[in-house]
Write a structure and sequence with these properties.
four-stranded mixed beta sheet, globular, 7% helix, 257 residues, mainly beta, four-stranded antiparallel beta sheet
Length: 257
């Protein structure tokens, strides 16, 4: 029997709930904790809340930027020391729905890095905020992505790929021996939102490789990764500055809350 759209969406939310990780918001100690609005949101041992919430995750993928503090409508909402470069949310965190002006500042200093002007964070929606650098520029930029889970499959694995390494050339992303995402430029998901959509692949164990586009030159890889049926994954290339050297890495984030 085919599920109605609303029933299918509820099923997808339930599947995500089954993949909950331990902890309230982030799996890393130095992650941002979006405290604004959480006082009215209670947990009951599942992902069900007694009040309407929206869900937000944060990624500091700007290798030329310092650790950052986050302010929501002028209120500091990150831990002492800020969010270090390369840190990202292990899961989505609940936030009271509403309009938020989101400001990123250098940790501990009143120095603006980037801002998302006041915009709506709607009930039951999922958002990812990414701090990043454009190629050839040390200035931090930020983008708000509306994560759409309405088309994910319960029978296949679902993934998307981001190139968030500003000094990387165009890259090809491989799932096993197959080029899944050819010719991906750094931060191209900002200007082309189609790259933010999740793609379906058969559930299986895959090697994940990022190569220079059109060349058999591996920048970073994960030898084997299980992509499970119904799983929703964000796979992304990152960069860490080490003097004049560029260290690239492939990361994988499983959607959960």
């Amino acid at each position: 029997m085919e599920l109605a759209p609303v029933e299918l969406q509820i099923l997808k939310i339930e599947i995500m709930s089954k993949r909950k990780h331990q902890g309230i918001f982030y799996g890393m100690v130095l992650m941002v904790l979006l405290t604004a609005g959480l006082a009215g949101c209670s947990k009951t041992g599942t992902s069900i809340t007694t009040t309407a919430v929206t869900y937000v995750s944060v990624m500091n993928m700007a290798p030329y930027a310092p650790a950052t503090d986050i302010f929501l409508n002028g209120t500091l909402s990150s831990p002492v020391g800020g969010i270090p470069t390369g840190a990202f949310s292990a899961k989505y965190g609940p936030l009271q729905p509403g309009n938020y002006d989101v400001v990123f500042k250098k940790a501990g200093v009143d120095s603006l890095l980037a801002e998302i002007p006041s915009s709506l964070y709607d009930t039951t929606q999922f958002y990812t905020l990414i701090l990043y650098n454009n190629p050839g520029s040390p200035a931090a930029q930020v983008v708000k992505i509306n994560d759409n889970f309405s088309t994910v499959s319960n029978y296949n694995a679902n993934y998307r790929f981001f190139n968030l390494a500003p000094d990387a050339p165009k890259v090809d992303f491989f799932l096993g021996t197959t080029v899944a995402q050819p010719g991906r430029s750094s931060a191209d998901n900002v200007t082309d939102p189609t790259f933010n959509a999740f793609q379906q692949v058969p559930a299986a164990a895959y090697s994940l490789e990022v190569k220079v586009a059109g060349v058999d030159s591996v920048l970073a890889s994960i030898p084997s990764q299980n992509l499970l049926a119904g799983g929703v994954y964000t796979i992304f290339l990152t960069e860490k500055k080490n003097g004049t050297a560029n260290n690239f890495a492939v990361n994988i984030l499983t959607a959960s809350y």
